[in-house]
Predict the 3D structure of the following.
Amino acid sequence: ITYTTLFRSTMYSIERQEINHLASLGYKWNDLFDIIKIFEDKISAYTGAPYVTVTDCCTHALELSFRYLQTKQKINKVSLPAYTYLSVPMMLKKLGIEYELVDRNWQGYYRFEPTNIIDMAIRFTKDCYEPESFSCLSFGGKKVLKVLRGGAIMTDNIEAHKWLQKARYDGRDLTNVPWETQGAFETGYHYNLSIEDCARGIIMMDELAKNGEINADSMTDAKLEYPDLS
């Protein structure tokens, strides 16, 4: 066996198959980017959120939500539970936002007071969207939807949604491809969820739906799950 043959065989064996499996289930698309939209639409229908933007993780979903609000007015300080994942205060520090960690337990989600940004990393169930908010989801091995890695921003603000759609993928308008033809870009961030993970999410959501409308939170007691970050 030649090295070239072995290399090709190895590459084929490790190729991710989610997109092929999605096609075998009868899903169709004109462009691979359509798979992202299919996933977002499924999340929207399931959670009750009018608009959804998927990202590569919940921390980046939170960051983009804060960045959008900062285009409207400066956010000087927020408060949040001291029992949370350590990337959250790091994200706030990165954005130059002061924060107060308060001794408050929580289940399902918590809000960054006084904003309408919600960390909903451990909840993913039917109609879980909180109206008039930026509710941020997390997908992963320890979460309800066990996509390898990912997140999403749910909102009912169409202006924000349009901004978030471009901001999460380097300022690109995914309805206008290839990107070289776009011409002008606002500053964006490389926080896009891979098409393969979107395909995986679609497949897993179809399976999740078979379990009924209510899914248990992936964590029931924040004080038992996280240390006191204060």
